[in-house]
Structure formats: structure tokens, C-alpha cells
Design goal:
- The protein has 336 residues and is of the alpha/beta class.
- It has helices at 11-22, 39-48, 62-71, 86-91, 93-114, 148-166, 200-208, 236-251, 269-280, 304-310, 318-334, and strands at 2-6, 26-31, 53-56, 76-79, 118-124, 171-177, 179-181, 215-218, 230-231, 233-235, 255-261, 267-268, 286-289.
- Helix 1 (11-22) crosses helix 8 (236-251), helix 7 crosses helix 11 and helix 9 packs across helix 11.
- The two termini are 33 Å apart.
- Bound molecules: nicotinamide-adenine-dinucleotide and uridine-5'-diphosphate-4-deoxy-4-fluoro-alpha-D-galactose.
Length: 336
């Protein structure tokens, strides 16, 4: 299939590109490089032997999007492009609504104009807000989101549902990711955020590498077994495979759907630090810090819908997630 990955040079997009190229799809990427670099294209080529067709453009550029979709006969879009820093979204909400929500509307208009009617959207477990029960199933109420970033995900999900209601041929699948971590086993692609990482894993990796001093564990008084926050960490390679399967699923149907991509198992912050210590072979310094505003105590997925509809389930465990993240971090430091 001829597939466009918006945001395809980013963390999850690049791993998905590798997966799709391996499955013989024709991969096109459009990215404005606000949080990634062109070097990722070379890394993807080194891994797969094929280089995606790349357009440096912004999803908010209506003319460019129509051109990319129309000129290349794109049959489906996997829409990763977006800003994703929760804290920044509270400081610059308009930038998030503009980039994520307006950008998605512009992309959808271009899809409509060029007759492309299949979309996979990068949603998030954040749409569930504070869980009323665990594990989270897709019919858990959405809402109660505590930050503008999360609200953009919820709004986009609703926009897609409205579009599917209006256009009987449109197919939109919202993949609600839990916490993606890890890297490709080659160490050539992985998560490399600019500046101080917001997310736990890249922060732990930099402390392990001696780039940062210690991990701040945000709260040890949650109602969880060791008092620290519990999340469903999922290997980015499993997530990438989920996209390839979701693409087949979405292409063969119409209408709106939402599917969790998680493992079904939660780990605490301290368990993650211990697992990383095993992977890197030395202690990782940490201190207990105050809770971070907006954090929930725990969430993990019920992934059975993905198993039922896509035949997907996560296969890689925490050990592999930490080992590949560490391998990627070491390659970054060595500059190879
Ligand atoms: P990422 O920042 O590595 O990738 C996003 C890519 O989109 C980047 O390459 C960036 O340059 C590009 N981009 C941003 N705005 C753009 C625009 N207007 N036009 C074109 N390109 C643009 O992030 P990621 O972790 O790979 O996340 C991918 C998607 O998954 C995002 O939508 C994110 O919100 C969502 N998501 C991520 C997580 C996570 O923990 N990583 C969890 C849930 C959902
Ligand atoms: N944490 C720390 N110290 C840190 C960073 C995080 O203790 O330096 C803790 C958090 O308090 C939380 C856990 O580690 O308990 C995970 O935090 P992350 O920031 O890595 O991830 P979140 O669960 O807060 O959010 C992530 C993404 C969101 C996404 C959500 C669900 O950042 O964009 O997963 O997919 F919506």
C-alpha cells in the first residue's frame, strides 16, 4: 500500500516506517522536523535497505498536503505528527491546538480533496483521564483530561468520529498508546528528545549514561504497591507492528474505532529504575521528589480488543525495552 506517515521521522513514526518497509509497503514521510532530523531517514535505510520518500513540510500547509497526497496516489495515512510535551502544552496551549487540532483538520481536508479515506491516528491513553477502573477498556468513559495536550487528542478523536458519521466511506482507527519505550535492536533509531526529557525512560537513560545527575521520582505516596506511579510500558517495536496490522484492518472497513495498544501490565517508577540498572549494569541515582501536577497514580490497558480485531499482542518484555533503550543511548554517546 502507498502510505503517508505524518511525523514519520519521529520516535514512533520511524519504527513504524521500518516495520512497513519490511512488509513491502511504499512509505512516504512528511515531517517539519520540529522534533526530529533527516538523519533518521538514513538510519531507516540502513536497517531496511529502502529509503522512504521524504517531504519536509508542515501538516498545516494545505497546498503542500494536497500535493503530497494527490501526486503520490497515497492510499492511507498514519498520522503521528503532533506536539507532545504535557508541561509545554499548559504554557503554550494555542500552539498545541494550532499544531495538533488545526493541523489535523488541514490534513483531513487534503485527504478528502484527494479521495484518501483511510487514517490511523496516534491517540493516547491520556484520553481516559483518571481511571475509574483498571485495566482500561476502550469503553471506559473518556474525558477529565488534565492538560491541553491530552485535550487535543480527545478533540481529534471526536473530529474523526464526526467525519466518519458524515462520510460513510471514511475509515479512522484511533490507536490509544500507553507508554512507548525502547528502541530498534540495531540502536540506529530510538527516542532522543531535545533538552531535558519529560518522560521517565529517556531521563533514566541519561542518568545511567552520566549526562544527568539523578532521576526525580515524582511522588512515593500514591496508592500503588511501592507508592510510585504505575504505567503500562510498551516496546516501540511492538507498537510499530500494531500499526502495520491496524493499517490492514482500517483499509478493509469504514467507520470510526479506537483500540488500546498496551501490554496489560503495569510497572512502578522504582521497578523501571531497577530494570534499567540491570540493563546498564550499574546503579542509577534517584531521589524522591514531590508529585508532578496532573499525574495519575496508575494506568494500564486491557489489550484484548487489539488481540481480537488485529491479532496483535505485545511480545517484548521490560528487559528488552530497557536493553534496547540503553543500547540506543550508548550509540548516541559514542556518536556512531
Ligand atoms: P515525536 O515528537 O518523536 O514525533 C512526532 C513528529 O511529528 C516529529 O518528528 C515532529 O517533527 C513532527 N511534527 C510535529 N508537528 C508537525 C507538523 N505540524 N507538521 C509536520 N510534522 C510535525 O513523538 P512520538 O513519540 O513519535 O509521538 C508520535 C505521536 O504519538 C504523537 O502524535 C504523540 O502525541 C503520540 N503519542 C506519543 C506517546 C509517547 O509517549 N511517545 C504516547 C501517546 C501518544
Ligand atoms: N516520572 C518520574 N520522573 C520523571 C518522569 C516521569 O517519576 O522524571 C514518573 C511519572 O510521575 C509517571 C511515570 O514516571 O508516574 C511515567 O511518566 P512519563 O512522563 O514517562 O509518562 P506519562 O504516563 O506521564 O505520559 C506519557 C506521555 C503522554 C501520554 C501518556 C499515555 O508523556 O504523552 O504517556 O500514553 F499521553
Amino acid at each position: 500500500m502507498r502510505v503517508l506517515l505524518t511525523g514519520g521521522t519521529g520516535f514512533i513514526g520511524s519504527h513504524t516506517a521500518v516495520e512497513l518497509l519490511a512488509a513491502n509497503h511504499d512509505v512516504f514521510i512528511c515531517d517539519n522536523l520540529c522534533n526530529s532530523s533527516r538523519e533518521t531517514l538514513t538510519a531507516i535505510e540502513s536497517i531496511t535497505g529502502r529509503r522512504p520518500v521524504f517531504f519536509e513540510s508542515d501538516i498545516r500547509d494545505a497546498r503542500a498536503m494536497r500535493g503530497i497526497l494527490g501526486d503520490n496516489g497515497i492510499e492511507a495515512v498514519i498520522h503521528f505528527a503532533g506536539l507532545k510535551a504535557v508541561g509545554e502544552s499548559c504554557v503554550k496551549p494555542l500552539a498545541y491546538y494550532d499544531n495538533n487540532v488545526s493541523g489535523t483538520v488541514t490534513l483531513l481536508e487534503a485527504m478528502q480533496a484527494t479521495g484518501c479515506r483511510t487514517l490511523i491516528f496516534s491517540s493516547s491513553s491520556t484520553v481516559y483521564g483518571t481511571p475509574q477502573k483498571l485495566p482500561l477498556t476502550e469503553d471506559h468513559p473518556v474525558g477529565g483530561v488534565t492538560n491541553p495536550y491530552g485535550r487535543t487528542k480527545l478533540i481529534i478523536e471526536k473530529i474523526l468520529a464526526d467525519l466518519c458519521a458524515a462520510d460513510a466511506e471514511f475509515s479512522a482507527v484511533c490507536l490509544r498508546y500507553f507508554n512507548p519505550i525502547g528502541a530498534h535492536p540495531s540502536g540506529l533509531i530510538g527516542e532522543n528528545p531535545n533538552g531535558i526529557p519529560n518522560n521517565l525512560l529517556p531521563y533514566v537513560a541519561r542518568v545511567a549514561a552520566g549526562v544527568l545527575k539523578e532521576v526525580n521520582v515524582f511522588g512515593d505516596d500514591y496508592p500503588t504497591p511501592d507508592g510510585t506511579g504505575v504505567r503500562d510500558y510498551i516496546h516501540v517495536m511492538d507498537l510499530a507492528r500494531g500499526h502495520a496490522l491496524a493499517l490492514q484492518y482500517a483499509a478493509g472497513r469504514s467507520g470510526w474505532d479506537a483500540i488500546n495498544l498496551g501490554t496489560g501490565k503495569g510497572y512502578s517508577v522504582l521497578e523501571i529504575i531497577r530494570a534499567f540498572e540491570k540493563a546498564c549494569g550499574h546503579p542509577v541515582a534517584y531521589r524522591i521528589a514531590p508529585r508532578r501536577a496532573g499525574d495519575i497514580a496508575a494506568n494500564w490497558a486491557d489489550p484484548s480488543k487489539a488481540q481480537r480485531l488485529l491479532g496483535w499482542r505485545a511480545e517484548r518484555g521490560l528487559e528488552d525495552m530497557c536493553a534496547t533503550a540503553w543500547n540506543f543511548q550508548q550509540r548516541l554517546l559514542s556518536g556512531k
